[in-house]
Write a structure and sequence with these properties.
This protein is α+β, with helices and mostly antiparallel strands. 45% of the residues lie in helices and 19% in strands. It is built from two helices and four strands. The strands form two sheets. A two-stranded antiparallel ribbon has the order 1-2. Strands 3-4 form a two-stranded antiparallel sheet. The protein is elongated.
């Protein structure tokens, strides 16, 4: 039942959480997963992180020319473009 106590660490007399308190939190987490249903955010994050890391290396080593101004990536077509604004 929803009013039962969930024991997280029975062997060590650890903290106990009331199921009524944890259910709203679980529901919020599940709603967030559903909201981003088909999105593959980890792919875009990996790409962005790689681009930023590459640009930082260019600046630190002074070996290549960094992106000049604004880089836009289209995640749907997997294409990028650099614009001078």
């Amino acid at each position: 039942s929803a009013t039962q106590i969930i024991d997280l660490n029975a062997a060590n007399d650890g903290p106990q959480i009331n199921a009524d308190d944890i259910m709203p939190r679980i529901e919020r987490i599940l709603e967030e997963f559903v909201r981003a249903a088909g999105a593959e955010l980890h792919n875009i994050s990996a790409l962005t992180g790689g681009m930023v890391a590459q640009e930082v290396i260019k600046v630190l080593t002074k070996q290549y020319i960094p992106i000049d101004n604004t880089c836009v990536f289209d995640g749907i077509t997997s294409k990028s473009a650099v614009f001078r604004l």
